[in-house]
Amino acid sequence: SQLHYSVPEDREPGSSVGDLAKDLGVEVRSLATRNLRLVSEGGQRHFQVDLAAGVLLLDSRLDREALCGQSPTCSLHLQLVMENPLQLHRVEVDVLDVNDNAPQFPKPEVGLEITEVANPGTRLPLEVAEDPDMGSNSISTYELSPSEHFALSINVRGDGVKMPEIVLEKALDRERVAVHHLTLTALDGGNPVRSGTAKVTIQVLDANDNPPICYPPVSKVHLEENVPVGTLVTKLNVTDLDEGPNGDLEYSFKVSNNSPGKFTKLFSLDPRTGEIRTKAPLDYEESSAYEIAVRARDKGSPAMEGHCHLRVELIDINDNSPEIVLTSLSSPVQEDASPGTVIALLGVKDSDSGANGQVLLQVAKELPFKLVSSFKEHFSLVTNGPLDRERASGYNITVRAVDSGSPPRATHKTFYLRIADVNDNAPNFSSPFDTAHVQENSLPGTSVFSLSAVDPDEGSNAKLSYSILDNGARDVPISAYFRIDQDNGTVYTVRALDYEQDKVFQVPVEVKDAGSPALSSTTLLHVFVLDENDNPPTIVYPSIPQGSAFHQTIPPLAEPGYLVTKIVAVDADSGHNAWLSYQLQEATEASPFRVERRSGEIRLAQALQDSEDGHRLVVEVRDNGTPSLSASVVIVISPDENSVQEFAKSLDLPKSPPKDANLTLYLTISLVSISLVSCVMLAVVAARCL
């Protein structure tokens, strides 16, 4: 059990403090037999037990101020031990303050200066008197001896301390009175009242008649603990209406016995600007508030000063950050992992308590993951959506822990999660159709085209092999004409190609990856065979055995321009290689015949002479290829005396067109039709390719 007593500090030794036997509910005679003894918790013996009377006695005079200083309460703790049975009782004795100390000023004599031009209302701060007593026994008020010019004003500081100030009530005149002698009395609230005095001497000075004024004279600043050294606490707002040196201010700390100057180790004061900054770390647990007195003195002659009182109150902050512990991590994870798959196990701890120790774990919302609470301070990181290695091969996952302090403290931990590939993407060609051109008669093994496919997977899932498919559309399999390199997709010819036999090939190509199961895609390669001038012209008319000549007769009276005959030739090639031209070989200027270069018509260039017999002409037909190929025919032309009737028929009359002219027309129509059909076929194939 616990017993509670109180005793004034001025009691004489041997005074009774309390009746232990009665309060413990035991008989007095049993105290000795139960070996009652007293144990002091503080190590000092202030009390004793009278076993005969069963009372607690004062062993020595108590001094509350020495025991507890300025603490508002003063308690001494004892322990009573009794045996048979063993019992322990706690005794708390409150030491009550009595008015046993008189107020005392730090200095018995105080010297002050004031200019003679000081305005009524000017205040002269005085140092606070000290009284070790507490409560009503501490300083209650101040009194000032009667004066014509001065009165006393008392301000209450933030901590309740009363600050005396002398206030000028009437203007001064140094020429009449240069020095004023006053008595300042400090009175406490005890009964009887105790007092202390100090002599105040006020020197009246000339000139500098505006003192520095601090606004407000008493201010309060709230500052967080653990702010960085050098943090600005406040900048004093002090004004001096004087100019020049009389208005230049110099700041300094004012240290008194009440505040022995501990704050000067924690704060710095710029003597020119009046800025107060921290110069050491502040700890709320060591002290929650500091009282700072600052003197602002100008450089006048004599100098005037003002006083600022600043109370700095510290704010307790959340100064411990959470800590994240990564217990386990499953990396890599398959990209086809189902939602809810556990990726990592995490733990969190915070050395703070209460709200400052309550931690919330967060992960970025744009990531396909979420946190699930397993149990207190333990979390599981699970998938929250589909994964795609082709879009993201890995994730830098940052987990952020925030406590509930004010302000909250946060920490984060980043770890890398690799995504393992699965074969979920088929290889793709850049186009479903491709077009290539190859010259006919190219050597086997000629490179035709290089196909390229891409697979966004990786490893064996992206290892590609190419092959040619045989769709059975041709009598001869397509592999008889082309082969493909399975590694790089290059298509080669297997044998020489003939434009006149096959003008275009459709080569289906498949690409397949090495995944399990393997995925594939196809494309169609259109291979156009380019014509080469490998076919000489063929003479269709006149049709004669090789090595023989064609005999043609004309009327001897035929006039120039007479159509003797027409050479008709064709070329299996196409384009420029099939453009034919006709000309005479070994032609001389005296020859009476000429050959039309484009049409192949042989006409009489000049009238025949009577003496002329037959003429032997060698007509060459040449194509426009490179190199050019040709064919020739030998025509023997002789006059026919009996062909007058045939001569009349051979004249170029509109009424009876010659047989050769009709043949020319038919051949021209045939060539134009073949060309148009070829163009249409090429246009259809090109359109399908596109």
UniProtKB/TrEMBL annotation:
State the gene name recorded for this protein.
Pcdhgc5_1
According to the UniProt entry, its GO molecular function terms are: calcium ion binding
Q: Which residues form the Cadherin domain?
A: 6-105, 106-214, 215-324, 325-429, 430-539, 546-647
Protein's cellular compartments: Cell membrane
Q: Name one GO cellular component term.
A: plasma membrane
Q: Which domain of life is it from?
A: Eukaryota
Keyword Iron-sulfur assigned: no
Q: How does it sit in the membrane?
A: Single-pass type I membrane protein
Function text? Potential calcium-dependent cell-adhesion protein. May be involved in the establishment and maintenance of specific neuronal connections in the brain.
A Gene Ontology biological process term: homophilic cell adhesion via plasma membrane adhesion molecules
* Gene3D superfamilies, sorted: Cadherins
For this UniProt record, the keywords arranged alphabetically read as follows: Calcium, Cell adhesion, Cell membrane, Glycoprotein, Membrane, Repeat, Signal, Transmembrane, Transmembrane helix
* Transmembrane regions: 663-687
Is the Disulfide bond keyword given for this protein? no
- Pfam (any one): Cadherin
Protein name stated in the entry: PCDGM protein
